[in-house]
Amino acid sequence: MSKPPSVNNKLKKVIAGVTSLPTLPQVVSKVNSMLSDPDVTAAKVGDVIATDPSLTARILKMVNSAYYGFPHEIVQISHAISILGFITTRSLLLTTSVIKTFGSLESKGCNLDYTEFWVHSLAVATASRNLAKHLGAIAQAEDLYIAGLLHDIGKLVLSQYFSADYQKVLQQSHDRSVRLMDAETESFEFTHEDVGGLLAVKWDLPIKLISSISNHHHPLAGDENKPYFFNNSIVHVADMLCKMMDIGDSGDEFVPQLDKKAWALIGMSVRVADTVMAEVLEQKSNIKKIFSEIK
Amino acid sequence: MAHRFFMAFLKIKQLKGGMVLAEDLTTSDGRKLLSEGCVISEVVINKLERLGIPEVNVSSAGLDGVNHGARFQTREELSRYVNRKFFGFEESEFTEQLKELSRKYLNEQTPVRK
Question: What's the pTM value of the predicted model, to 2 decimals?
Answer without folding.
Answer: 0.79
